[in-house]
């Protein structure tokens, strides 16, 4: 998937300015930032949980090999 780049970002900002107006853009930016932060934290929590499960499984399999 190609990246947006500077020209694409400028077009998006101009369209947002036309649609929402200059008074709503700061509120919109804040809402987008909070949403991205929450998404990032959620995905980090999920990745951490999965990593912990893999570490636990590795430890259990290593313990079984020691017993055998």
Radius of gyration: 22 Å
Question: In sequence order, what are the helices and strands, one letter per element?
Answer: HH
How would the global form be characterised? elongated
Quote the distance from N terminus to C terminus. 49 Å
Count of separate DSSP helical elements: 2
Task: Give the class from helix and strand content and strand pairing.
Answer: mainly alpha
Enumerate the spans where pLDDT stays under 50 for 5 or more consecutive residues: none
User: What is the averaged pLDDT score?
Assistant: 86
Beta fraction of the residues?
A: under 5%
Number of beta strands: 0
Biggest sheet features:
none
Helix content: over 70%
Describe this structure in words.
It is built from 2 helices and no strands. The chain is mainly α and 68 residues long. It starts with a helix and ends with a helix. The relative contact order is 0.06. The mean pLDDT is 86.
């Amino acid at each position: 998937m190609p990246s947006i780049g500077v020209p694409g970002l400028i077009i998006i900002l101009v369209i947002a300015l036309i649609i929402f107006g200059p008074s709503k853009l700061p509120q919109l930016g804040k809402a987008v930032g909070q949403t991205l932060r929450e998404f990032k934290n959620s995905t980090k929590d999920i990745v951490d949980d999965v990593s912990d499960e893999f570490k636990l499984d590795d430890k259990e399999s290593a313990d079984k090999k020691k017993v055998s």
